[in-house]
Give the backbone structure.
Amino acid sequence: MADFTIGDRLKVTLFGQSHGPAIGCVIDGFPAGKRVDWDAVSFFLARRAPGQNAWSTQRKEADAPEILSGLNEAGLTCGAPLAAVIRNTNQHSGDYPDLLNVPRPGHADFAAGVKYGPAWDYRGGGQFSGRLTAPLCFAGALCLQYLAERNIRIAAHIARVGNVFDKAPDTVHPQFPLYEAGAFPVIDPEKGRAMQAEIEAAKQAGDSVDGAVRCVVTGFPAGVGGPYFGGLEGKLAQALFGIPAVKGVQFGDTQPHGSENNDAFRMENESVCTVTNHCGGILGGISIGMPLHFTVSFKPTPSIAKAQQTVDLKAMQETEMNLRGRHDPCVVPRAVPVVEAVTAIILTDLLLQGA
Amino acid sequence: MADFTIGDRLKVTLFGQSHGPAIGCVIDGFPAGKRVDWDAVSFFLARRAPGQNAWSTQRKEADAPEILSGLNEAGLTCGAPLAAVIRNTNQHSGDYPDLLNVPRPGHADFAAGVKYGPAWDYRGGGQFSGRLTAPLCFAGALCLQYLAERNIRIAAHIARVGNVFDKAPDTVHPQFPLYEAGAFPVIDPEKGRAMQAEIEAAKQAGDSVDGAVRCVVTGFPAGVGGPYFGGLEGKLAQALFGIPAVKGVQFGDTQPHGSENNDAFRMENESVCTVTNHCGGILGGISIGMPLHFTVSFKPTPSIAKAQQTVDLKAMQETEMNLRGRHDPCVVPRAVPVVEAVTAIILTDLLLQGA
Amino acid sequence: MADFTIGDRLKVTLFGQSHGPAIGCVIDGFPAGKRVDWDAVSFFLARRAPGQNAWSTQRKEADAPEILSGLNEAGLTCGAPLAAVIRNTNQHSGDYPDLLNVPRPGHADFAAGVKYGPAWDYRGGGQFSGRLTAPLCFAGALCLQYLAERNIRIAAHIARVGNVFDKAPDTVHPQFPLYEAGAFPVIDPEKGRAMQAEIEAAKQAGDSVDGAVRCVVTGFPAGVGGPYFGGLEGKLAQALFGIPAVKGVQFGDTQPHGSENNDAFRMENESVCTVTNHCGGILGGISIGMPLHFTVSFKPTPSIAKAQQTVDLKAMQETEMNLRGRHDPCVVPRAVPVVEAVTAIILTDLLLQGA
Amino acid sequence: MADFTIGDRLKVTLFGQSHGPAIGCVIDGFPAGKRVDWDAVSFFLARRAPGQNAWSTQRKEADAPEILSGLNEAGLTCGAPLAAVIRNTNQHSGDYPDLLNVPRPGHADFAAGVKYGPAWDYRGGGQFSGRLTAPLCFAGALCLQYLAERNIRIAAHIARVGNVFDKAPDTVHPQFPLYEAGAFPVIDPEKGRAMQAEIEAAKQAGDSVDGAVRCVVTGFPAGVGGPYFGGLEGKLAQALFGIPAVKGVQFGDTQPHGSENNDAFRMENESVCTVTNHCGGILGGISIGMPLHFTVSFKPTPSIAKAQQTVDLKAMQETEMNLRGRHDPCVVPRAVPVVEAVTAIILTDLLLQGA
């Protein structure tokens, strides 16, 4: 337990469950004196919001957060913890079966029952719900603005859906935006269309499909992180694995042999950089001043329309289950801003503590 | 900074640098009243030790740790922090060039120079040295014994070297030991020989090769971990990325479509388990009672004999570098017990805190 | 920064500022399956609430918290973070002068200006406001119920106001309640009346008065805590000093000589206890199974009606200040439940982590 | 458990037990590039060392620490964790009775037995031993040098022994050194002699006596700390209560009425300061730029020569105990540098994290 706080000097605490009154977050340690660009926050939250297109669940959300604290009369951040609340509306509780006693394969239901016992609020996945990535994105949106002031930019794209891979970005001189304006950020539009076809095919089959998000950070200074357990990879990974459905995190694009994988140092504009960037901008757990890049892989949505085998925990016997309801056949498109948000939170925390 | 401690209730703190007087660790929070099987500790440390065969550096280590505290007169753990020291001997400082001013590609040298400044003790990689995995394995060896008392077993094998993949283990009913007795743990001996050929080829070419370690844990109870930032994946990943050269961590073996990837629940011996185990024994960040399994990927050793381009930071100009010295052409064989050790430390910590 | 979270396995995060829209808290890690006694919560919050009598500020609060998450449909705690919000109403912003530029002596104004800069929301003391002890008491009220299930009881009384000392409780066999029903908990009612006279005198003089709260815990098991930095005293003290106006924490009632101060061990009902309890139930940082007791001292309310010397930070010159507004002439009476709440939170956290 | 680490960015981890092979510490996060003044370290450790005079135990210690890591070839701190070991010699194990079964009143014996069980190494108090303050002072000595570079000075004196109080220091313009050169640091030598008489009287009576240490810090910048749980008082207190025998911590010297206790702001040399310093240099949990000052109270040494009542835990019956051995009749004189050391560690940690 105590699973909903991340960060040291900047602490982000999430709260809520899928079918409770509200979800939200508390952001403690965000610098005072910042004017928030609320339009940018809204735009960022909209990128994560469901119901926008063919690829995502039709559940509508009114994700405009109410700010309960953290701003002064002039609307600047004031150093007090920033608390934001998003009311839950439009839940269809009736869509959900008795997940406590008949757990869905691939979902947290069974594990949650073991951990919390019968009081667990299984409706919509309770506190495991992807809904909580909305306040997480809210926190990330603020951090993105903090980082942008320091010319640090974060952008992610859909690196893969099923077997369709997007073109890899230039990780030495990344082009921004990596993604098109719109809800399906890819570098190569043709690959994007193939991915959408893959998602549509899965949907038609009552199935779902996996994928990956690649995230690129530019402008991050050299010297942040540390050896062993202070490594930048570990700090980012711990937070990224906190995103529902993430099963893998890979930094850089390791090449099989040292002679190809080692990034030769060179001079550019009188400063040191590397010719290639296979290391993902991190050596010895420490940033080297090159763009950071890493790939986060997501499992296919466990909610599928096909019949599945499970167990009835009351009867202690096997049974079959058919799920209904609105589900994303692929979580990856909506996960793109979530990856950016988590990255922004961790990098802001590290910069604030001078790590 | 403050990078060398991992764990909450069980805290393992490493210390040392490659060419200082000694390396070691402090283990705080290990349960009192345990009789350590020192032969098992020695055997475990020997699996990591260098100089044993053709695939590893010829540097000899006398890795028998001296115990400075933590045992009572009868030799039982007594609740005091367990401190262990391993003296450094057999360093060949002369083998190392001026890494502070001419950083090696792929190594921490440049990053360390930015972080620590000119006082950094670059000899042998300083505190970034893989040498510190020796005390880490010492801590892990104790934790493995603690876990074994609870019938929790951890075993890893070489999953990949370059393009050669070992046979995958049965992740529903794993066979132990996963690895042969010996220094090159694989499931399929033929694949093992092909991997060794790959390493030998890299060595002959003055090059190095990458790979991966797969780790399997049996007997771990259901209900440990939590949603979001309390997830088992994140806690393990943070520690695993602390191992030098790790660039990726993947849990389970995700299948592209939900219908294949979802592990159907079933009954076995009147308890709930799953038909497959693609989730790696973890759903919603929480263990489900099935074997845990995950794959840790390592980059190729950055130390290679081939000429490489780098920069002279004093002259601020590009230069060429030729490294000499004893280096593993592939870190993966010796990393196998390190992955087991780190896994043991984290799982012990979680069990001790009742998480 | 990141100052508003306390606890390890049970994490309580406060948010809000005095004149923002709302204050509240997030409680993560509270056990699932508990039915909250809301009447007991209300009664507990009412003990802290202002405006009840002659000794406290006349500001009215509608402190009934709204629960945003953490309960299931049946009203049981469900394992999700428990978020509670209390709306701010009845603020008289106009009562407060420009504290940013003319800081009040004894208040956080000057320090806050240095830490947060001009964006600090100084109205009502911002995030330093004692208002935030309302959600803190809410969290404490839940923990008190958790502890009561284990027969652990916490009660505090007003140990001192100015020079008037309450009778000391029996710390070997404490009588509960230590305090009368009512808003002025003392053991000796006569001393209580003298204290009230002291407060009234301070009020009449446009002044304020200091005091102390003594807290007693019964039923707490032996063996919790640890040596050095794991000590029970340190963990409690860190949290207790988080209460506004606390300047001292003293455990037990140390006697000058070892021969008097050492608590002789004895047998009672076939279990080990001590004859006296000068150690406050803690030896070597670890509970010994005797009642815990400690005294928390509070400074006099810095808000006084008398003229005071301060500086005008814009003009950088000394000036005189006259404060108006509603203030408690003594914070101690209302601090009693706050001390109980903080104690309950820390002890619950320790029990949950099996420390 | 996990009780021996303090600090966030600067982490100090102690290890050892009284009668094990060695004690020591690991200091992780200390800045690189510092040249340690080893004579100053030795002098500081000597202030804590026993056996120097009539007031302290006659046990001799060869407390010169061996440095195992953390220095480069040139002897500068290099960023690697600094590990120091002090060998245990001169233990008289025979002096100690069977503390596991017949616990000493006022000592940790009984509590340790509950926490660790029979494997606890009770000889000399095991890991509860004041011996571990030697490596703590070593860590503190380094931090004092770091702080001195920033013109931050820490000095403590014996504020009280039994009923004898030292003169209070000027807390607005403290005079350094607060203590005489020598092992008995007081401001008023006459009071010092009376304290020594008090200690000698306790010793002659086979008894012990309590006391207090006051610590003053000058040069500490304004703006460090935070409201609620980020308060400077709480962070210092948690660490100070880690010193064996500490039972109370008081910040500043609170006056009974707000009109006296509030420290009026004034201008001096064009900067803001206060006329008095009753707040101990801290308002709202944040430093205000005035000297910090606080008082740490110690219980009388529980080891006394007088007969005491205790219980025989095997027989479960009361018994009498007579202790022999070498004990300080008052821990306060030797605790003075320990208080300074702990203060230095916490303040260094806070400055390093930019808190």
Summary: Chain A touches chain D through six residues (CB under 8 Å).
